[in-house]
Amino acid sequence: MALGIYEAKEFSTRLLEAVRILFDLTETARENNDSFSSIVAEWERYYLGVFNEFERSYMKSDLSATSDLLKLLPVIITHHNIHRLIEALNHELGNRKVNETLIPERVDDLIASLNRLAQEVRTMPSLLSNN
Questions:
Q1: Spatial separation of the C-alpha atoms in residues 115 and 125, rounded to whole Å
Q2: Cα separation of 114 and 127, whole Å?
Q3: Euclidean distance between the first and the last CA atom of the chain, given in angstroms as a whole number
Q4: Global pTM value
Q5: Which structural domain range is residue 50 located in?
Q6: In this structure, are residues 78 and 116 in contact, taking their beta carbons and an 8 Å threshold?
């Protein structure tokens, strides 16, 4: 499926719902000192699922030939940046607890990045409707 403006708006709803779940899960894991593996499992389900579907549709779309490509690019870049951050934390922590990280700023960065992603996804429909 190629990504049109309508599909991008539909994806923004699905992406935002998943990002909120991840944000809440990460904050709860930090507060309760839960295992990092639950965050990794939820992220992989999301990243390889709805986000992967969005990105593939985006790459096949007619939007890639327009200025809308640049409007949505930050959403894609932020996803990949969060993925690398989660990989780094997972490499360090594995199944250990979130608060056992040697670099607690990484968890703060993850929460801030998820919050920024939610803001970017939330603005997707308005970006596309302002042609």
A1: 18
A2: 19
A3: 22
A4: 0.84
A5: 5-129
A6: yes
At CA 93, angle to CA 91 and CA 97, rounded to 5?
A: 160
Q: Are 111 and 89 in contact (CB under 8 A)?
A: no
> Rounded to an integer, what distance in angstroms lies between the CA atom of residue 99 and that of residue 57?
37
Would you state the pLDDT for residue 2? 55
Q: Which two tokens stand for residue 82?
A: 């969060």
Q: In the chain, which ranges are E strands?
A: none
Q: What single-letter amino acid sits at 24?
A: D
The burial class, CB within 10 Å (0-12 / 13-18 / 19+), for 95 is exposed
**What is the mean pLDDT of each successive set of 10 residues along the chain, which is 131 residues long?**
66 86 91 92 92 85 66 88 95 92 92 91 72 49
